[in-house]
Amino acid sequence: MLVFGQICLMSAFVASGFSAFASFAGSNDERPTLRKCALYSSVTSLLLLTFVILILLLALLTKDFRFAYVAQYCSQLLPWYYGMSALWVGQAGSLLLWAWFLGLLTMLFRLVTSEKNGWLRERAFGLLMGNCCFLVAAMVFAADPMAKSIAIPAKGAGLSPLLQHPAMLIHPPIIFLGYAAWAIPFAIISAALISGRLDASWIQQARSWALFAWAVLGAGVLLGAEWAYEELGWGGYWGWDPVENGSLIPWLLGTAFMHSLMTWRCRGLMKKTTVALAIATFAMCNFATFLTRSGIFSSLHAFSQSPIGWLFLAIMVALALMGSFLIYLRSAELTADNQITAFFSREAMVAMSTIALLILAIVTCLGTLSVALSDAIVGYKITVGPPFYNYVLIPTGLLVLLATALAPLLRWGASPNAAERKLLLGSAAVGGFSLLVAVVWGAKHFISIAVTGIIVFAIIAIVGSLFLDALQRYPDNHWSSLLRCLREKRRLYTGFLVHLGFFALAIGVTGSSLGARRHEVELQQGQTVKWAGRSISLVELVERQLPDKLVAEAVLEISQKGEDPYYLSPAQHFHRLQNEWTTEVAIRSGWSEDLYVILHGSAEEGHASLTLVENPMMRWLWLGGGTMLLGALISLWPDRRRSMAGVFSKTKITASRKRKKIAA
Fold first, then answer.
1. Pairing state of beta strands 549-560 and 571-575?
2. Which of 14, 51, 127, 415, CA to CA, is 20 to 30 A from 36?
3. Does 167 reside within a domain?
4. Interval 479-536: pLDDT, tens
């Protein structure tokens, strides 16, 4: 199987490279044979990569330590599902999964793209297959997943205990799927730039793929935060870890790209910005890979130092240079069709939020590289923490919130009309009143007060804009008109649904950041402590022997006024194979707050050292992320009427051709 896998990997490298060449060479209409060869070669490459994945997956599940990859990331005691997750934990396996995702999405792009945009499809297809060839080449020449073990171990090194978490079963694959998906809008826009055809024909295709990539990558980032919250045992969900920052940066740039693309489509504005953001987003996906594989810093889930990381950095630099040259070359075609004529217009708010998102991405990038840059520039390492990020995050985040709140009541290319101005003033009045209510209820921090006012204003604005739109379109039947508006302007209002998810996310981030409380306590068995309106009793300490680890947990009974008692069991796990302790926290989640309990171990029998953390509004953070994902999926859902219209039009064309043949 090793030899067969190596043959498949090498053949996939050749097939993907030939597909990229044939696609570019056959992009003109007079060379259909080359286009067919490119398609068949890409199918062959995808099938070969599928064989390689299946071989490696089978080796992981059967604990075949003849494979060096299996010996490094699997063990005899590892459960089968974590053995399967080892496929994407290592450097070679993650590249293999990334290349397979890219090959699969490239084939899907080739199949769903209309032939009337053949010039765009073939060039974009060639760029995608070239990227796939690069990923396979990195495996063939530097990180071979089919490498043979020099000495076959008896048990295997096993998976890091911190990666043995349910979120790790889906978090890394979703991140790599997001990276692969962002290659498609990049390829579409690059093909348009190369061809010099920068009309509206490519925008709809780029929008759909970009929205899919944005949603997938956002889901991956959120799952990474959930993993950190539940597994690392420090009470938080985002520690500005360089690896997690690596996936956050392209998501921020992708969010800015989605908004600027909408401005181009609706008003013919921000064309250069849109193209630059598309290229920058894909380039930063490669930059994230450089961060995890270059060895310039240490992180829990970074890979070991490898020359592969620097290859991805070179690709990122090449993309930046190529993009700059193409934008300069096509600067005449990228001239804006209009100008921003009113500050209170939708394009002005989009431009404001785009700038704020760019600032966030740049600051996150600089903070991530602070250690490496300071060492190279001043000769010693400077590490930045959350205060550095928060210094920029807070004002820019509030600016994005405000621009997002104003958008529903603003029009493209004009100031608000009389009805919209009234609704704006009414929303602002309700938002201002909510500020006073927040202060009366005990809110003291400026940020929490400001976020409360902006979000209440935004909710009133979204609901009010829906009613105003319905009344203007269908004044006779009020309730059915709401449904008709939602149906006919589905993409607009699903965009507002994404905004509502963003507001819920902001509630979670604000509440958990400003209102978190911690308390260190040591309890004897049977002892009770009162904290934050709760009575917390240590019922017992339990030790359990499992095949691969020792489990020591504290059973806590927690009671709160007006509620039934409940039990939490924070634990410490000792993993025998790695000779390593890990913390397994216990969480009681609610809409108002989470109770987060950490067990630090016992100094003596019947004695436990605990950290109690109260994280307000955490569930709103997860709700917000899920709502944003739901809004994106609804927006991506195909329009049945358009689909049926396409079917009918094709039927009419076919019938017309048949009639012409009969007449002839």
1. antiparallel
2. 51
3. no
4. 677 777 888 788 888 889 999 999 999 999 999 989 899 999 999 988 999 998 899 9
With H, G, I as helix, E, B as strand and everything else as coil, classify residue 150: coil
The pLDDT of residue 599 is 93
Burial (CB < 10 A; 0-12, 13-18, 19+), residue 366, is middle
Q: Residue 589 and residue 568: Cα distance in Å, rounded? A: 11
Domain with 91, as residue range(s), is: 1-159
Measured CA to CA, the distance from residue 495 to residue 268 in angstroms comes to: 20
- Looking at the structure, tell me whether residues 6 and 73 fall in a common domain: yes
Kindly report the CATH number assigned to the domain that includes residue 66. Answer: 1.20.120
pTM of the model: 0.91
Helix (H) or strand (E) holding 607, with range, is: strand 607-616
Query: Which residue is associated with the tokens 């006012």?
Result: 453
Per-residue tokens: 282: 């894909």
Question: What is the C-alpha separation between 268 and 335, in angstroms, rounded?
Answer: 9
- Say which residues have a Cβ less than 8 Å from residue 634's Cβ, sequence separation at least 6: 490, 494, 497
Q: At what angle do helices 346-368 and 242-267 cross, to 10 degrees?
A: 160
Q: How many structural domains comprise the chain?
A: 3
Rounded average pLDDT over 140-154 = 88
Highest mean pLDDT among 193-202, 366-375, 410-419: 410-419
484 within 8 A of 498, measured Cβ to Cβ: no
